[in-house]
Amino acid sequence: MPTFSFNHIALSVKDVDESIDFYKKVLQLDEIENTASNSKTRWLSLGEGKQLHLIPRPDAEIKTNKAVHFALATEDLSPFIKHLEALNIDYSDWRDTPNKDYVRKDGIKQIYFQDPNGYWIEINEDV
Length: 127
Known about the structure:
Strand order of the largest sheet: 1-4-3-2
CATH architecture of the largest domain: Roll
CATH class of the largest domain: Alpha Beta
Radius of gyration: 15 Å
Number of helices: 2
Number of domains: 2
Largest sheet: 4 strands, mixed
Shape: globular
CATH topology of the largest domain: 2,3-Dihydroxybiphenyl 1,2-Dioxygenase, domain 1
CATH superfamily of the largest domain: 2,3-Dihydroxybiphenyl 1,2-Dioxygenase, domain 1
Oligomer: single chain
């Protein structure tokens, strides 16, 4: 059986420029070259060779719910929460309590917020 490693996540977005700006500003991701094609799909680095691909689909219906999300980890959530607050980006715990973090059963602190297309992003301290 082959082994697998995570490579990238791809999201359909209404406005790729708006989404690129959001991810660069909020998560401070660096844009990298789309080496796969000459399309308008744009790539961001998640570090360690992992990528976020933003695929323009201006006419697509994008449906989301919090259970469908991607998660990034950081050692200390507090500075990131202050960053979100400075950008006036609402966040919540798993139960949708506004501007509140959540501590999971295993002791890991986490928050959730949405990008301009409604995709949910979890940031946690599971490093």
